[in-house]
Amino acid sequence: MLDLFVVFRLSFFAPQILPLKQDSIYLQ
User: Fold this and answer.
1) pLDDT by residue for the chain (28 residues), tens digit each?
2) Any idea what DSSP says for residue 1?
3) Three-class SS state of 5
4) Beta-carbon-side half-sphere exposure of residue 21 (alpha carbons within 13 Å)
């Protein structure tokens, strides 16, 4: 259950973090 919770958190936060990194790359 703990693993599923971690995966859920990663799937929730990752989409918010990755676009920021991609935007920073495109801006540079």
Assistant:
1) 678 888 787 777 766 666 666 666 665 5
2) -
3) helix
4) 6
